[in-house]
Structures are given as C-alpha cells and as structure tokens.
C-alpha cells in the first residue's frame, strides 16, 4: 500500500507544481487553491508511505516522479522545449529511482 500512496503523492506533486505555475505567484485564486490543497495531500500521502518505506527511497521516488511529471507537463501543456539533453536527464532520473528501489 505504501507504494500506492507514494505514486499518488508523486502525481499530486505534479499537480501542485503545474497549478503553482498557473497561479502566477499566488495571484490567481483557483490555481492557488489547487496548489495548496494538492500540496497538503501530497505531503500527507508521502508521510503515509514513509511509515514503511525507507526515508531515502520514499523521498527520491517522490521527487523523481514530481520532476519527471513536471517536466512532462511543461512540455505537453506549456509548450516548453524538449531537447535530447532533457530526455537524457529524465532517463537518468528514472534509472536512479530504479537503482534506489532495488538496492535495498
């Protein structure tokens, strides 16, 4: 169950980072509200996952999912540039998360 909590915490991290961008420094009420609610829910689910998962594993997977998802949201939804170097970075993040998972 901890991995499910962690997966949803990572998804919520993507939602709050994307909605934070849309909030324009918290000057738009609806994206600001979505940012705060999804941030709280993401941290809560992360804390539930940390009950049984090691700190390093949980945190690295959570931030990795958030980083990859935020990158994807930026490219797909905001038209940010997609380059081979950025793709290489995403692959390295995924490889790092996999190595952390299987190292323990």
Automatic annotation (TrEMBL):
Keywords from the UniProt entry = Cell membrane, Membrane, Transmembrane, Transmembrane helix, Transport
Localisation = Cell membrane
Q: InterPro entries recorded for this chain?
A: EmrE-like (IPR037185), Small_drug/metabolite_transptr (IPR000390), Small_multidrug_res (IPR045324)
Q: Name the principal localization, coarsely classed.
A: membrane
- Topology class, membrane: Multi-pass membrane protein
Q: Which Gene3D superfamilies match?
A: 1.10.3730.20
Entry protein name = Guanidinium exporter
């Amino acid at each position: 169950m901890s991995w499910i909590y962690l997966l949803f915490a990572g998804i919520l991290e993507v939602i709050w980072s994307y909605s934070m961008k849309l909030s324009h420094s918290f000057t738009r009420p609806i994206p600001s509200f979505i940012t705060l609610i999804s941030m709280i829910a993401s941290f809560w689910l992360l804390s539930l996952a940390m009950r049984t998962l090691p700190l390093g594993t949980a945190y690295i997977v959570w931030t990795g999912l958030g980083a990859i998802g935020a990158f994807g949201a930026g490219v797909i939804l905001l038209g940010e540039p997609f380059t081979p170097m950025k793709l290489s970075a995403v692959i390295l993040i995924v490889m790092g998360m996999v190595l952390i998972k299987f190292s323990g």
